[in-house]
């Protein structure tokens, strides 16, 4: 088995990013010459097959609680160009599988070009995000970067749509968790009432992703050739790590493949500053050696802008 | 008796003159079909008997103020007379970008920093819709009128006009959610009516854009 690639310590990188973020927040407040807007989100998420396993015996379902807080600085640079600098801190915990617990934090810079005046003017946004991750499973620790380009258009007060393309990558302490992908998505927003929003979307992601399996199935099944020589040969050379993530003797490994997603979200506005979000997401992934898995994710969030 | 006739004639003429220049009033009560009072309706009366309108005051000081506060415009509806200036203070801690694409007054004030106040003169009559190009939910209306006799309905749905000459008028009632303004001819007697005139209106659904936070992203890969 090829040893995992030695990478800079994810924890150290994450700590360095945190220091950078903290020092740049004050500078941002000055540069943007405005007080930040604060927002927070609390989420409960139920994921079926959070392990991303291909065989039913390794399916693990669990609930996670997540709290997220964002400070957002906005600045109009020219009459048609807007800058938005967000600093977000997110904490996630899973009562059942504590190795899923993690904290993520980092800045996101968005430049938005509006082609005209008013809510119906089309917009083109370019966003760059840096995210540090500090996880209970230290193999995941590291820094992620994300860049995206989004075109959005509101057609009427009740309908809007957007398409976007993105690249994302994460450099982790263990290479099984260092992933990168390209993704494209399209979404449709329906506002049948000012207090009710329905959003639906599809996306495709292509690149690398981390999945998990029990060591018994991985070693004695896939690696031993139970899924065919092509899979055995591929699994032998991909980055992998003993993580014991869902119970003792579990392996996490990195695949190349694609993920197709479909989701919808029903979001009633409780007040002008608070909304509820009920979301269903369906993911289907297939690796380049035709192993596949599906996930169903249900979540409920409360979002508040202070 | 003959000696009294000129005096009687003078008295009659004087009374007629008083009738002609008598100051009267008009009050409207605006409600929905369900009986809910309608605020922010603009009632205006335009004389139809060819009387000259009182001259508009010189636009030396702002006639009204529309604040940007809490990332909203306050108030929602502002009636002014043609040629009047309005001041737009930014009382927020964030930037705004006021604009209008309405025909009576097209303008925009970008890069509108906190603490700044701009004054805009509205030279043409009509309804001017204001937005903010940064905060798409922000909305306000300026109703620019040639007549000096106008009033905005209160939260109780009442709009009252005082000190206007008796005579014939075109009455206009406008509201941002009315499909079409209500227009009718009325004649005001010297003595104001004892009860307000009631208007029952049908309002279109509120189509303002949602301000509440958008849902968050998905689980993410």
What topology emerges from the helices and strands here?
The complex is a heterodimer of chains A (306) and B (221).
Chain A: H1 10-31, E1 37-48, E2 62-78, E3 81-93, E4 102-114, E5 123-135, E6 142-156, E7 159-172, E8 179-193, E9 196-214, H2 215-223, H3 229-237, E10 240-242, E11 250-268, E12 274-287, E13 292-305
Chain B: H1 5-20, E1 23-32, E2 42-47, E3 64-65, E4 67-69, E5 72-74, E6 77-81, E7 84-89, E8 96-102, E9 105-112, E10 117-122, E11 126-132, E12 139-145, E13 149-152, E14 158-165, E15 167-174, E16 182-188, E17 197-201
Parallel strand pairs in B: 1-17, 3-7, 6-12
Antiparallel strand pairs in B: 1-14, 2-13, 2-15, 4-5, 7-10, 8-9, 8-11, 11-12, 15-16
What does this structure look like?
The complex is a heterodimer of chains A (306) and B (221). With 306 residues, chain A is mainly beta. Helix content of chain A is 13%, strand content 59%. In chain A, strand 8 and strand 9 form a beta hairpin. Chain A has three helices and 13 strands. Chain A has a twelve-stranded antiparallel beta barrel. Chain B is mostly beta strands and 221 residues long. Chain B has one domain (23-49, 61-201): Immunoglobulin-like (Sandwich), CATH 2.60.40.420. Chain B contains one helix and 17 strands. The longest helix of chain B is centred in the first third of the chain and has 16 residues, at 5-20. Chain B is globular. The termini of chain B are far apart.
């Amino acid at each position: 088995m090829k040893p995992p690639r030695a990478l800079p310590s994810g924890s150290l990188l994450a700590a360095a990013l945190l220091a950078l973020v903290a020092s740049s927040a004050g500078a941002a407040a000055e540069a943007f010459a405005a007080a930040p807007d604060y927002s927070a989100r609390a989420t409960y998420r139920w994921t079926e097959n959070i392990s991303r396993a291909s065989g039913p015996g390794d399916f693990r379902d669990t609930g996670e609680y997540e709290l997220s807080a964002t400070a957002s600085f906005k600045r109009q640079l020219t009459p048609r160009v807007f800058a938005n600098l967000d600093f977000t801190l997110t904490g996630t915990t899973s009562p059942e599988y504590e190795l899923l617990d993690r904290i993520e934090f980092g800045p996101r810079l968005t430049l938005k070009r509006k082609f005209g005046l008013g809510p119906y003017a089309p917009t083109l946004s370019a966003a760059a995000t840096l995210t540090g991750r500090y996880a209970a499973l230290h193999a995941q620790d590291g820094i992620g970067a994300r860049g995206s380009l989004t075109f959005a258009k509101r057609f009427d007060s009740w309908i809007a749509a957007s398409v976007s393309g993105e690249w994302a990558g994460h450099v982790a302490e263990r290479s099984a968790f260092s992933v990168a992908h390209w993704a494209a998505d399209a979404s449709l927003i329906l506002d049948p009432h000012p207090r009710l929003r329905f959003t639906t979307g599809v996306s495709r992601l292509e690149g690398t992703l981390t999945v998990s399996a029990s060591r018994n199935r991985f070693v004695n099944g896939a690696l031993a050739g139970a899924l065919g020589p092509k899979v055995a040969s591929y699994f032998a050379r991909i980055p992998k790590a003993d993580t014991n993530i869902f119970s003792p003797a579990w392996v996490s490994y990195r695949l190349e493949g694609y993920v197709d997603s479909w989701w919808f979200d029903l979001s009633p506005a409780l007040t002008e500053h608070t909304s509820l979000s009920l979301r269903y997401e369906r993911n289907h992934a297939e690796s380049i050696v035709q192993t596949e898995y599906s996930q169903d994710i249900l979540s409920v969030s409360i979002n508040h802008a202070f | 008796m003959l000696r009294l006739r000129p005096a009687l004639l003078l008295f009659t003429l004087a009374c007629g003159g008083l009738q002609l220049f008598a100051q009267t009033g008009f009050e409207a009560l605006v409600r929905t079909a369900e009986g809910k009072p309608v605020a922010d309706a603009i009632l205006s009366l335009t004389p139809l008997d060819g009387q000259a309108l009182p001259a508009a005051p010189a636009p030396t000081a702002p006639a009204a103020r529309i604040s940007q506060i809490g990332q909203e415009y306050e108030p929602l509806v502002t009636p002014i007379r043609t040629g009047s200036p309005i001041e737009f203070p930014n009382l927020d801690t964030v930037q705004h970008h006021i604009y209008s694409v309405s025909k009576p007054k097209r303008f925009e004030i970008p890069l509108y920093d906190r603490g700044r106040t701009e004054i805009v003169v509205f030279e043409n009559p009509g309804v001017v819709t204001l937005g903010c190009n940064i905060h798409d939910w922000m909305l306000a209306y300026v109703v620019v009128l040639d007549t000096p006799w106008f009033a905005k309905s209160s939260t109780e749905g009442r709009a009252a006009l005082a000190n206007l000459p008796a005579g014939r008028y075109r009455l206009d009632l406008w509201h941002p959610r009315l499909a079409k303004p209500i227009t009718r001819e009325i004649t005001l007697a010297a003595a104001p009516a004892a009860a307000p005139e009631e208007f029952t209106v049908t309002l279109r659904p509120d189509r303002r854009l949602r301000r509440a936070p958008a849902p968050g992203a998905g689980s993410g890969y």
